[in-house]
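Hello Y.,

Per our agreement to keep a running log of every chain we model this quarter, I'm adding this entry. I've kept the format consistent with earlier entries: sequence first, then predicted structure.
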Amino acid sequence: MERRPLPAEAEILPILPDAPSSLDYGLSFTLYKRRWVLLLGLCVINFSNSSIWLSYAPIANKAAEFYDTDFGNIDVFSLVYLIAFIPVTFPATWLIDTKGLKAAMLLGSLLNTTGAVVRMASSWLPTPWMFPIAMLGQVMCAFSQPVIVSSPTKLAAVWFGNHERATANTLASAANPLGMLIAGLLSPFIVTDVSNMPLLLGVYVAPATLGTLIIVGFFSVWPPSEPPTPPTLSAAEESEPFKDGVKALLRCKPYIILLVTFGAGIGLLSALQTLLEQMLCIRGYDDKLAGICVAAMTGAGLVGAGIAGVALDKTKRYEDIMKLCFGLAGVFGILIAVSSTFYDAAVLVVLANAGFGFFAIPLLPVCLELGVECTYPVAEATSGGLLFASGQIQGIVYILVLKLLGQKPSAHELVVQNCAKLNGGSTADPQDMTISAMVFASLVAIAAVVTIAFFHTPYFRLLADKGRMEQPDHIKRDTSVENIAKLTEGGTQ
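Predicted structure for the entry above:
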């Protein structure tokens, strides 16, 4: 059978030890070096989008003073990301899985950059206009988030081999918490005084612009969304149509469990990062400690994610790694809740956040990969997008409930608190978040126990790569490897 010559940049993909040769099915599996450029672009825009998301949280008191508003309105800057994700999820995943990565990544990067510029421009306006225009820019960035965070699993599946998918997904997904890390460090560092807020908003424009330039440049030189030849047998399979894919997800019991527990993890992480400063300032800690905690949490989480990504590609033990991370994240989540009620325990608070991040943040790429494995051949963006949507919905609930559970401070807390300038200045009112912290600990523990006890699944995508595809209960059509070859017949010859 005559085949097209491969480009010079193409790499022959290593086959899994017990997998069939690609020639057995008339397919050619190759890798292209330019995949790393596209991955870099996605990493940068994911980093930018998440840093914008939490840019106000570590400096909530100064932001409230700058915009002449209260803590509740500053919380909306974070909350709007969670709210916007819900209605945009289905259009975003449909766009990725039907129109391809090109359309999705271009739209996401351009919308994110435009929102960042609008936020910066708001600081040049009269005070009554600053907050609403800044919120408009934040909403634009929030609308780009579902497209951006749903792309890593699709990019890894379409452009990367089975020996590097988890690593690629980890790199792209870990850019999200890396952005949170930089926001936690950068915002308190720059905004030592409210007069520096315009500078901060301008700084956040830079990575958004860089990411857009990389994405636009890539697709200007290489227009197709997918490589000329697939990297794996599973990538050669035609994904379920969008509507059928959603139905298949709801028939998959392991995925439903993941939808609830992973969503709880994402929601609780969002709630913690949004409310952490308010939990600590009532004990007399300043906003710099909150920034250090977020930095420690995210920095340790990036290390954990890197270790988990390599372990996944080497061992393929998705379920075991996920359950280990869930269990230990639960332990450190409880420690965060307890330590946040102590005075003069800054070191313990930081260590608790670091331990939580080390085990919680790796759950992001691990669960996204596992979501694809247990629902294959449902399109990757569809399974990942719904997981994130669950997290955003739960995040909204948790932030509102935990905020509502805040109590009136005691006389001693009012003396030591560092939340507001009670004699003029900020209008923000401090709250005692002890009950909120205990509820947070309970929810983290429940999510961990449910996952460890009830989640079990075959790895359907790995089976497809090995040429031993089973017929999943959630899929109604023929998914045998022989049928994959028929569906792709002539496509790579």
